[in-house]
Each structure stands twice: as C-alpha cells, then as structure tokens.
C-alpha cells in the first residue's frame, strides 16, 4: 500500500537514502531539512526514479515548523502514515572541553526535535487509528564512549522516548527504533573539537553505506499491520 512518509533531515546521509529507498517502494515522500538545495537534489533524484515527493524547509528545533511540516502533509494528502525522525547532529567532545553550546545543540536537535515530531504526528495517528513512528537512534543509545557522553545521552533519550511511546500507544500505531553503527554520512562533519575529530577518523574508518539503514527502515515499514518491528541495530560487521 502506498503510504505518506515524512522524513526529517532528508537532504543527506541516512535520511536521503531512506527517502530514495522508500520512494522506490512506491511511497509518497515528504522530505524536510534546513538546506533546501540538498532537499531539491534528493527530490530530483526521486522524481527521476518515477517517484513522488514534496519538499519542505524544516528546522526540527522549531516546534511550529515541525507542526507545519506534519499538518501540511496531512492537509495535502488527507493523512500521514509514517514519520521517520532522523534529523540529528553529533558534535562529539570530552565534557572537560566545555563546549556547552554544542551540548545544547544536540539536546535541541536530537531530543527536542524528535519530541516535536511526535507531538505533531501523534494526533493524526490517533485520529486515523494507525501510523508508524520510526526513530533513528544510534548504537550510542546502547553504549557510552569517551567524547560521546552528551551525544549518547541524547540517543539514550531517543530510545527511551520511542520505547515509552510503544508502551503507551494503541496497537494500531507502530513504533520502531533503528540504531545504526558507523555509517558513511556528513555526521562527523559537525565535530569541532580537534581531539574528538581525530579519534573519529580511526573509529569511523569501517563504515557501511546509508542504504543499509534505509533497508532496515523499509523492512520495518513493509511488515503487515499486526507486526511491529520494535528495534533494529545495524552495525558494520567489523565494528565492535
Ligand atoms: N552516520 C552514522 O554513523 C550514524 C550512526 C548512528 C546514528 N546516526 C544518526 O542518523 C541520523 C542521520 O545522520 P546521518 O548519519 O545521515 O548524518 P547527516 O548526513 O549529517 O544527516 C543529518 C541530517 O540532519 C539534518 N538536520 C540537522 N539539524 C537539523 C535541524 N535543526 N532541523 C532539520 N534537520 C536537521 C541535516 O540537514 P540540514 O543541515 O540540511 O538541516 C542532515 O541532512 C542522525 O540522527 C544520527 O545521529 C548516524
């Protein structure tokens, strides 16, 4: 069945790969992010592949922006079926670097941004009696590493919020957390701390393509309505 699928942070990396993959499955995509040129390029690739897509500028830290993103899609298409909460930043650093503004940024994007999406989509899902939240968390939702204290905290929070949703919601609404290991993307580009940046060069050497995560999202969405894939952890085989 063709679904209306919303993806945040769809201009690059995992969000981009997920949007492209789901459009090939026949779903209509609504893609959001701050860099409109990047979204336009993704939309062009989707249309060239025969898919359909709407593009919306979106800052997930702005609650009204997220509400407009979700409500606009619901108005246009009469429903929303899937929200992939993917937008994220990862400016890693040791706590004693005191990059407090970067801590705030991670909290704002990775936690508040996710919550804004839930607040916007939940009323639609409840009215429809169905819907699907997909959260892109991280293996950082399962383990803490030096330089990752705040990032991992935001991903533990993303995991907890999504698991809480699963427990609270009616069975018609499905909930999936996908936790990637090291994936090729622009994510490490948000690191400003020189030590953390250097450490990541080795750590991120064995990365898998974002399509591997898109496959996991497609698998969860493609299950029959009575099957809820709650959690998938997808790492490079070489990652420990
Ligand atoms: N790559 C990995 O190794 C890895 C591992 C585990 C988890 N993850 C998670 O996967 C998700 C996607 O990351 P990625 O690896 O694909 O990195 P990426 O290429 O940097 O993608 C992140 C996306 O988030 C968007 N974004 C950032 N701040 C935003 C905001 N305020 N509002 C809206 N969109 C925003 C960015 O678009 P704009 O800048 O255009 O807004 C960007 O397209 C993140 O949640 C990340 O934590 C990644």
Automatic annotation (TrEMBL):
<dbReference type="Pfam" id="PF00106">
    <property type="entry name" value="adh_short"/>
</dbReference>
<dbReference type="InterPro" id="IPR002347">
    <property type="entry name" value="SDR_fam"/>
</dbReference>
<dbReference type="InterPro" id="IPR057326">
    <property type="entry name" value="KR_dom"/>
</dbReference>
<dbReference type="InterPro" id="IPR020904">
    <property type="entry name" value="Sc_DH/Rdtase_CS"/>
</dbReference>
<comment type="similarity">
    <text>Belongs to the short-chain dehydrogenases/reductases (SDR) family.</text>
</comment>
<keyword id="KW-0560">Oxidoreductase</keyword>
<dbReference type="GO" id="GO:0016616">
    <property type="term" value="F:oxidoreductase activity, acting on the CH-OH group of donors, NAD or NADP as acceptor"/>
</dbReference>
<dbReference type="InterPro" id="IPR036291">
    <property type="entry name" value="NAD(P)-bd_dom_sf"/>
</dbReference>
<protein>
    <submittedName>
        <fullName>SDR family NAD(P)-dependent oxidoreductase</fullName>
    </submittedName>
</protein>
<feature type="domain" description="Ketoreductase">
    <location>
        <begin position="3"/>
        <end position="186"/>
    </location>
</feature>
